[in-house]
């Protein structure tokens, strides 16, 4: 997308204000449905008799979101952001309606997949619209509002979802967003039609490799998530070989979307991208199963399970705030140790709760520590990666950071689901195997954290 060449193409103050309201509303509901539904998922799976499809139902939106996130960019360049975001909203809401009305788990999964397709088409055009239509000096306020729109659902969403499940019905966790968004959708349609058409077409052949890589990655991750729905006795040698082959193809496709050397954890930016994917993936991989663990082992209701996720969101925010107060390389060296080590320790404490005698409150203590530790280092990876990169490549690295987030979370939910399915005969201790896999990966993350800084000569050069 190009920038407007004349101030006359920027939105008026009135229209810009409406754009901010609409955009913040869209992001808030997308974030709520992405984060808060974890609280409801165990009860959805039980109600629809689809417990073995738990990981698939929880993770499929991330896989389909990865597909359309890659397609949204070229589409915006070719047709402009308005068309993409309107279609994205329609698909997102349609998926939620299907999920809310689903008579069975398979229809519910289809709705969740459609929700991810639409969700992946929303954020890219919104960011492009800010860059194209908003006066540069006011763009910072828009992005700050977007950040708040993501934070608030992570803090309060799980608790709200738990309340809805306990006192209304789990279907309203998915039904409330379409009900509210449909009220202001006509307003968004009217306002977006007033935006000037300032896009310029770009040849899609320049993006074909990127588009194919995102499409292939999403399909492959979805395949792994489908395998997580198999029964233990269905994991034959052929199924395991299929999972291995899909994994190899997945890593071959995703490497086109991240800097060279990311999977080798090469020093500097590649290691930073790898660390980010590991931290986010392991955190989401564990958190996805915590409400199920608390329900099955300790008999917690959705509201109390939501309290755990809300508390970890608060400690994440505190850790992020502390990290932001101490910028620079020297504090980052400490944060790069505290972050992954603390997340590992918190995850290990959380794993103790698979023993019924320990009680579910160990989850609260451990997960609050994990949230704080992740918050200390996770936001810093963005600043650090961009700081090591020339300004001309900031767009590419920003994209790689987002890919690492989505790839890490969606793929590790899939692998966690496969481990959970394979060890289902161990009853409650299947959670120990699932969380244990994330602990092993966090040990690797600790090693990766030591490689996010370039060689000493590079640091000295940048310091001088």
UniProtKB/TrEMBL annotation:
Bilayer topology term: Multi-pass membrane protein
GO cellular component: plasma membrane
Subcellular location: Cell membrane
Domain of life from the UniProt record: Bacteria
Protein name: MFS transporter
Keywords: Membrane, Transmembrane, Transmembrane helix
Major location (coarse): membrane
Keyword Ribosomal protein appears in the UniProt entry: no
Lineage of source species: Bacteria, Bacillati, Actinomycetota, Actinomycetes, Actinomycetales
Record field: transmembrane: 21-41, 53-72, 84-110, 116-135, 142-164, 170-190, 210-229, 235-252, 273-293, 334-355, 361-388, 400-423, 429-450
Annotated Major facilitator superfamily (MFS) profile domain residues: 9-451
MF (Gene Ontology): transmembrane transporter activity
InterPro entries on file: MFS (IPR011701), MFS_dom (IPR020846), MFS_trans_sf (IPR036259)
């Amino acid at each position: 997308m190009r920038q407007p060449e004349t101030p006359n193409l920027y939105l008026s103050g009135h229209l810009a204000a409406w754009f901010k309201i609409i955009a913040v509303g869209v992001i808030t509901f997308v974030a709520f449905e992405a984060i808060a539904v974890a609280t409801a998922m165990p009860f959805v799976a039980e109600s629809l008799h689809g417990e073995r499809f738990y990981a698939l139902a929880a993770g499929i939106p991330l896989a389909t979101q990865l597909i359309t996130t890659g397609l949204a960019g070229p589409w915006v360049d070719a047709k402009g952001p308005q068309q993409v975001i309107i279609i994205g909203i329609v698909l997102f809401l349609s998926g939620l309606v299907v999920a809310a009305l689903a008579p069975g788990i398979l229809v519910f999964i289809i709705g969740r997949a459609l929700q991810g397709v639409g969700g992946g088409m929303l954020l890219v055009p919104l960011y492009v619209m800010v860059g194209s239509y908003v006066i540069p000096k006011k763009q910072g306020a828009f992005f700050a509002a977007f950040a708040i729109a993501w934070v608030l659902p992570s803090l309060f969403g799980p608790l709200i979802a738990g309340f809805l499940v306990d006192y209304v019905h789990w279907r309203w966790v998915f039904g409330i967003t379409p009900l509210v968004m449909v009220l202001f959708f006509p307003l968004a349609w009217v306002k977006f039609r007033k935006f000037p058409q300032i896009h310029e077409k770009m040849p899609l052949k320049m993006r074909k490799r990127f588009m194919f890589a995102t499409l292939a990655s999403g399909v492959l991750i979805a395949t792994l998530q489908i395998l997580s729905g198999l029964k233990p006795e269905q994991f034959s040698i052929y199924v395991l070989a299929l999972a291995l082959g899909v994994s190899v193809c997945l890593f071959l496709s995703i490497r086109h979307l991240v800097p060279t050397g990311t999977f080798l954890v090469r020093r500097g930016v590649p290691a930073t991208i790898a660390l980010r994917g590991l931290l986010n993936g392991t955190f989401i991989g564990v958190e996805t199963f915590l409400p199920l663990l608390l329900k099955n082992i300790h008999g917690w209701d959705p509201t109390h399970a939501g309290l755990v996720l809300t508390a970890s969101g608060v400690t994440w925010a505190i850790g992020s705030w502390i990290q932001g107060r101490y910028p620079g390389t020297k504090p980052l060296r400490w944060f790069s140790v505290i972050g992954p080590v603390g997340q590992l320790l918190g995850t290990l404490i959380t794993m103790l709760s698979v023993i019924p005698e320990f009680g579910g409150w160990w989850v609260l203590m451990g997960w609050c520590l994990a949230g704080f530790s992740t918050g200390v280092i996770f936001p810093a990876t963005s600043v650090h990666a961009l700081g090591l990169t020339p300004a001309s490549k900031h767009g590419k690295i920003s994209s790689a950071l987002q890919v690492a987030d989505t790839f890490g979370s969606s793929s590790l939910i899939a692998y966690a689901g496969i481990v959970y399915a394979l060890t289902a005969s161990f009853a409650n201790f299947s959670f120990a195997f699932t969380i244990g896999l994330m602990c092993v990966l966090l040990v690797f993350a600790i090693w990766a954290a030591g490689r996010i800084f370039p060689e000493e000569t590079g640091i000295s050069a940048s310091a001088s």
